């Protein structure tokens, strides 16, 4: 796991300024504190900061050259099945000088080109150059576990593991992408390949870029939407249980491969508990499990994580954080990341990873299970709301339908959704259209930016246009929603020099999950046609049913049957703290904020003197939909904008 930076000549020759290049590379030092190296030429300049995980010797340093010096790679990530691939390449005559997965990837690219990636099980972003043919590739893994940012600058492609080295390199500008700011208020991340800067792009998951003959081409090499077609054939519950057990065991085994200490994140929920139970089956002694919480009711899951740690024979290390640490960490993340914090718990996860670093360099996480197995019961179950809105066939009589429509309108505020996309967009946005109109300054073109966001979601829906609304939603969550979470996971862990691995996002599991009929993911216990998903979820249905059923023998019942909590942060309580409130509103009422014209001063002035930000109806499962959360987003944006002034 590392940080990579470099530039590739698209046309002509490079004139790399070594001092500027090394400064940009050193901005990634947290990603690779163990070693650094670089190679500079008139065709390509590659830099690498190393976090040593596999083969800790100096033989693993990068950029790495092939034995004949005709090929070079700078690589961030892990190829978990590298040992098997290494043996296959040996039979073809390839020789190896070290025991790294990097050299396997390098020789595989030499042998088979881009098709070799189809054989790789892992998380990765890398740049590869063939000197003999003068052709270059940059890759990002299938799900987007590892980030890769780039920009086309004066016939050069400049790439980096993070945004900040790009904004500080040469004379590249910092023109803001206003649509990404709007998208942030809607989805907590930019859409598509956008970033918060117009000239800087994010390479989408499952894509690679080829540079040759003076041209740059972006190509997709992986997707999984066709797997949904298999969900039309029910192979029986036992088949899905058995296959899932086998795949998860294999995935966890792969992700325990390391030459440094490995630990796990433990929330006390189903997903991290499954990983803990599978680790226990490996009979690993003195394994550390880490949990974080806050000293507020509903914002601490230690009671449950302790049950799992005891069941899995793990050392349970608990961290309690506070508002002072939180906002100090938040400012550091924004300053180093060069982007806004994505969601509130990104800050909490960084604090947790700083503690983990004292004991381990690799940590396993349960990220991804909710997206691929319908774990967000309220939103995945809401497809039924839309079906019932559009058809009378779900109701026994008119009275039952009237009761449903009354519940529907009470929650959604209307009953006139034209399409499933309109319904989803209304439900998925963190801030409503009207609230965004209030938050953003009058000179911000709300409608234009709203249409761009909706058009992006529509394109994702079109990729599964022949599938059900359920499958379309699952596809979007895996392709888009998950990308934001993974970028949060990557940065919060790598800022602490910790590698975070995600067993549920082994691409074999993602592909397999798409083939499972929806009834095994979100299982209906009892039909309640009068009610909407918000009322039904986890009362009359079971989210992630097949996952719970597959591992019920190794998970404590108290954990297996828990309601979903998430990873909450007590923002509303903190907003009642005078120090926190002063910190936030001194930024939001500053001259910089007023002159920038993005956050509406009318909105801020209306709430600045509010005495109580506590949501009386709040439970920790809904903490991201409060006024305090919206104010946090505004503060987050303005802190980022102050750090990135032209």
Structure description:
- With 646 residues, this protein is an alpha+beta fold.
- The chain has four domains: 2-220, Glutamine Phosphoribosylpyrophosphate, subunit 1, domain 1 (4-Layer Sandwich); 225-374 and 479-525 and 542-560, 3-Layer(aba) Sandwich (Rossmann fold); 377-474, no CATH class; 574-643, no CATH class.
- A six-stranded antiparallel sheet has the order 2-3-1-9-8-10, covered by helices on one side. Strands 4-5-6-7-11-12 form a six-stranded antiparallel sheet, with helices on one face. A five-stranded parallel sheet has the order 15-14-13-16-17, with helices on both faces.
- A hairpin with a 3-residue loop joins strand 2 (35-40) and strand 3 (44-50).
- Residues 618-623 have low confidence and may be disordered.
Characteristics:
646 residues; alpha+beta; Glutamine Phosphoribosylpyrophosphate, subunit 1, domain 1; Rossmann fold; 4 domains; six-stranded antiparallel sheet; 28 helices
């Amino acid at each position: 796991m590392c940080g990579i930076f470099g530039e590739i000549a698209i046309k002509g020759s490079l004139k790399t300024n070594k001092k500027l290049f090394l400064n940009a590379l050193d901005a990634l030092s947290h990603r690779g504190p163990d070693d650094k190296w670089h190679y500079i030429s008139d065709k390509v300049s590659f830099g690498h900061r190393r976090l040593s995980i596999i083969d800790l010797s100096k033989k693993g340093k990068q950029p790495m050259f092939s034995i004949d010096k005709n090929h070079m790679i700078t690589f961030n990530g892990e190829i978990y099945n590298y040992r098997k691939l290494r043996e296959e390449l040996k039979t073809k005559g390839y020789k190896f000088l070290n025991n790294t997965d990097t050299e396997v990837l390098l020789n595989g690219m030499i042998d088979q080109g881009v098709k070799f990636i189809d054989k790789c099980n892992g998380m990765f972003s890398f740049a590869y150059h063939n000197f003999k043919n003068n052709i270059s590739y940059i890759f990002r893994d299938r799900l987007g576990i590892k980030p890769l940012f780039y920009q086309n600058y004066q016939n050069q492609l400049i790439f980096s593991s993070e945004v900040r080295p790009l904004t500080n390199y040469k004379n590249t500008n910092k023109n803001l992408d206003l649509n990404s700011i709007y998208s942030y208020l809607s989805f907590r991340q930019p859409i598509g390949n956008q970033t918060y800067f117009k000239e800087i792009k994010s390479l989408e998951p499952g894509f690679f870029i080829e540079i040759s003959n003076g041209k740059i081409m972006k190509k997709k090499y992986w997707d999984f939407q066709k797997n949904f077609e298999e969900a039309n054939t029910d192979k029986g519950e036992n088949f899905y249980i058995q296959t899932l057990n086998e795949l998860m065991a294999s995935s966890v085994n792969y992700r325990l491969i390391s030459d440094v200490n490995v630990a796990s994140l433990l929330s006390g929920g189903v997903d991290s508990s499954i990983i803990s139970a599978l680790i226990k089956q490996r009979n690993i002694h003195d394994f550390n499990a880490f949990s974080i919480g806050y000293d507020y009711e509903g914002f601490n899951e230690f009671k449950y994580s302790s049950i799992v740690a005891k069941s899995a024979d793990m050392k349970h290390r608990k961290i309690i954080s506070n508002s002072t640490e939180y906002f100090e960490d938040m400012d550091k993340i924004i300053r180093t990341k060069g982007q806004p914090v994505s969601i509130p718990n990104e800050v909490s996860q960084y604090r947790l990873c700083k503690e983990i670093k004292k004991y381990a360099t690799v940590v396993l996480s349960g990220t991804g299970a909710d997206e691929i197995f319908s774990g967000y019961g309220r939103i995945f179950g809401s497809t039924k709301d839309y079906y019932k809105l559009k058809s009378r066939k779900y109701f026994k009589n008119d009275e039952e339908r009237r009761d449903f429509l009354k519940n529907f309108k009470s929650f959604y505020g209307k009953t006139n959704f034209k399409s499933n996309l309109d319904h989803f967009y209304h439900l998925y946005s963190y801030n409503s259209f009207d609230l965004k109109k209030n938050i953003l300054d009058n000179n911000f073109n709300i409608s234009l930016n709203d249409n761009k966001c909706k058009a992006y979601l529509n394109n994702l829906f079109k990729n599964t246009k022949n599938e059900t609304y359920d499958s379309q939603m699952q596809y979007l969550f895996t392709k888009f929603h998950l990308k934001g979470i993974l970028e949060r996971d990557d940065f919060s862990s790598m800022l602490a020099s910790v590698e975070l691995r995600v067993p549920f996002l082994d691409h074999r599991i993602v592909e397999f999950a798409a083939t499972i009929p929806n009834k095994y993911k979100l299982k209906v216990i009892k039909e309640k046609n009068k009610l909407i998903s918000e009322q039904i979820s986890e009362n009359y249905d079971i989210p992630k049913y097949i996952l719970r059923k597959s591992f019920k023998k190794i998970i404590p019942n108290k954990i297996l049957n828990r309601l979903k909590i998430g990873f909450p942060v007590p923002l509303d309580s903190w907003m009642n703290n005078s120090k926190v409130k002063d910190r936030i509103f001194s930024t939001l009422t500053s001259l910089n904020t007023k002159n920038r014209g993005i956050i509406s001063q009318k909105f801020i002035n209306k709430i600045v003197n509010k005495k109580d930000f506590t949501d009386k109806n709040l439970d920790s499962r809904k903490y991201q939909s409060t006024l305090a959360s919206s104010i946090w987003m505004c503060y987050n944006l303005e802190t980022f904008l102050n750090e990135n002034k032209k």
